């Protein structure tokens, strides 16, 4: 059984319904079998979850739960201490190549339309696991205060934003009350640039493609949508895009695969926009 401190740590990192269910969905948990959250404190909810895991109610173990949370927060000391003696994670892919680090910033505030971000993250993680070339970290219910710490901790090659975008190109994060906080594309791009160069920025949200140019100072390539992007279309694009990266393709080639994956299910791909230093697709 995990120490009591584990419940406090999980409660601090995953304090709300969205972040809890994103984490548990990534492990394949059946939501219907989870303890009822109700008015429980976050640490009490996690204690109940861990008790059910220990009883064998799910296909994953407590070690799996800790490992998944540590992948989301690789710099968190408390998570590392929950599993003393565990070997350090391997950070090399095939033939000793460095793993491609992907940081997912995911937000669906309560005052916006609900998005199936858990499914989007699940598909990205599955592609990463199958390819053996990528390491995915996620910040769910992402707040503006999460952005710089996540960039400095994960040191990603790719930043993937999933959530809502406004028609002026601003991206929507959450505040402490899970209400929308808008961040102008220029300000987000400046944060990315300050933290270090990126291979690619994926803005998997409505209306983000119109402001794609501002991210080229921070990243070699940018992908977004110039129009409203249906939830299912966004999920399919993510699946195809990361299939490409996991296959060792360039960001430009991965974008083509993401677009193709959307098109196979009948979605209009004309809204997708890709820019890199060679030009636009």
Automatic annotation (TrEMBL):
Superkingdom of the organism of origin: Bacteria
InterPro entries referenced in this protein's UniProt entry, alphabetically: CHAT_dom, EAD1
User: Residue limits of the CHAT domain?
Assistant: 104-254
Q: Which residues form the Effector-associated domain?
A: 8-83
Q: What is this protein called?
A: CHAT domain-containing protein
